[in-house]
Amino acid sequence: MMPANRRGRRGFTLIELMVVLAIIGSLLTIALPHYFHSIERGKAQVERQNLAVMRDAIDKYYGDNGEYPQTLNDLVSKRYLRSIPEDPVSGNADWAIIAPPDNTKTGVYDVGPATASAVPAAEAAVQK
């Protein structure tokens, strides 16, 4: 049998619960910004890796065929890439196409992220 003063006291008081929630809230305000920043860094790293893979495929295509691919889809159709990777930062498969510096050659010389400062693929095709 329980003592008389402990009979009605089961669980935590409201003050104890509020203190625990305040501690959890304080820890979350410290941890969440670091978590979201690490996700953004991870996306940027994946984007750099995707660019490196596509650039390597363009170089191999040029080495094998003596010309640059006309589109990124040529790399997929000739199996230099399984598919055109998605840009994790923007969330789509649009990449900026960079034309060769030599005006006598055409095709995809390099790729970059499709941002406002880069030349989108549609504009690069019009410029040729």
From TrEMBL:
Transmembrane segment boundaries: 12-36
Positions in coiled-coil regions: none
InterPro entries per record: Bac_GSPG_pilin (IPR000983), N_methyl_site (IPR012902), Pilin-like (IPR045584)
GO cellular component, one term: type II protein secretion system complex
Species of origin: Pandoraea terrae
Entry superkingdom: Bacteria
Signal peptide: none
Keywords of this entry: Membrane, Methylation, Transmembrane, Transmembrane helix
GO BP terms, alphabetized: protein secretion by the type II secretion system
PANTHER family linked: GENERAL SECRETION PATHWAY PROTEIN G, TYPE IV PILUS NON-CORE MINOR PILIN PILE
Keyword Ribonucleoprotein set for record: no
Protein name as it appears in the record: Type II secretion system protein G
